[in-house]
Automatic annotation (TrEMBL):
SUPFAM superfamilies with a match to the protein in the record: Cobalamin (vitamin B12)-binding domain, Putative DNA-binding domain
Gene3D superfamilies linked: 1.10.1660.10, Cobalamin-binding domain, Methionine synthase domain
Phylogenetic classification of the source organism: Bacteria, Pseudomonadati, Bacteroidota, Cytophagia, Cytophagales
KW Repressor (keyword) present: yes
CDD domains: HTH_MlrA-CarA
Keyword vocabulary terms for this entry: DNA-binding, Repressor, Transcription, Transcription regulation
Matches recorded under Pfam families: B12-binding_2 (PF02607), MerR_1 (PF13411)
Domain B12-binding as annotated: residue spans: 175-301
Name of the featured protein: MerR family transcriptional regulator
Claim: Cytoplasm is one of the keywords in the record: no
Segments forming domain HTH merR-type: 3-72
Length: 301
């Protein structure tokens, strides 16, 4: 169970600490406990309730009325009012509250609603990515455990794969070809799965090789398939002391391709990138690159 200070709640919910104190004292929204040094601390239930309260108040509910709702009534009201495609913060709050409650049904309903209103790619960029960033902050605060992360990751993986499966097939002879892979030991796949969807939705042909691929296997694929672009996501590997060696080896085995590097490990400033190797800082950078390749193919010879 997480233990939050009031400044943690302010950061995670966007509600000012002064307002949180008023809601706590006047309406009993939260029930903090005090440490031996008389400092208020808040638990997961407090954060979840605060996120739901913030969501409803942002839609015009009076705090005095919200405070009278039961937990079940509040959750139902959040789902019912979560229909504004442009209110990204509200949708992220609702997802966080459902995650903390380990409510898979509500998580699924909220994600499906966002996707239906916004379209899949926009929902990932504006809702899912900020949601995952909040989870990272909560992980640092000790308020999410592997079960929370696994619940969300598994559900998002299902959504991305279902959206990808619904796309029409692309003939590799008609377009520039991509290879997507994660290096040996790398298991964080969500970003790569979304890249696969984004490329296929733009009409690119993708050879998706997934997690934990040894460099020798990639070399064989590049020789046979001759991709125009190879892309990988470096979240946990390689070790930063081995990153320079990795990028140089990757350049050698993908000699004729442009190589894109994405992910936190790839951002190490000490690494010197070989020619035709590009470091992407944001997912929108990747999408812009994919759009440029699509336009280049579409131009008449």
């Amino acid at each position: 169970m997480g233990h939050f200070s009031i400044s943690d709640l302010e950061q995670l919910s966007g509600i000012k600490a002064h307002t949180i104190r008023i809601w706590e004292q006047r309406y009993g929204i939260l029930r903090p406990v005090r440490t031996a040094t008389n400092i208020r601390t808040y638990c997961d239930d407090d954060l979840r309730r605060l996120l739901n309260v913030a969501t409803l108040c942002s839609r015009g509910y009076r705090i005095s009325k919200v405070a009278q709702l039961s937990e079940q009534e509040m959750e139902q009201a959040v789902i019912a009012c979560n229909d504004d495609a442009n209110n990204y913060c509200q949708q992220v709050h609702a997802l966080m509250a459902a995650m903390l409650a380990m409510d898979e049904v509500q998580l699924n309903q909220l994600l499906n609603g966002s996707i239906r209103r916004m379209g899949f790619e926009a929902a990932v960029l504006h809702i899912v990515y900020p949601f995952m960033q909040r989870i990272g902050v909560m992980w640092q605060a000790g308020s999410v455990n592997p079960a929370h992360e696994h619940l969300v990751t598994h559900l998002l993986r299902q959504k991305i794969m279902a959206a990808t499966d619904s796309l029409p097939a692309v003939r590799p002879a008609d377009v520039r070809r991509w290879v997507l892979f994660l290096p040996e030991g790398e298991m964080h796949e969500l970003a790569l799965l979304f890249m696969n969807f984004a490329l296929r939705s733009r009409g690119h042909h993708v050879l998706y090789l997934g997690q934990n691929l040894p460099i020798d296997g990639l070399a064989e694929v590049c020789q046979m398939y001759q991709p125009h672009t190879v892309c990988t996501v470096l979240t946990a590997v390689p070790d930063r002391t081995q990153l320079q060696e990795f990028v140089e080896e990757l350049r050698q085995v993908c000699a004729s391709a442009t190589v894109l590097l994405y992910g936190p490990v790839a951002q190490a400033e000490s690494v010197v990138l070989p020619p035709h190797m590009v470091r992407l800082q944001m997912m929108t950078d990747f999408l812009a690159f994919a759009d440029q390749m699509q336009e280049a193919v579409a131009e008449p010879a």
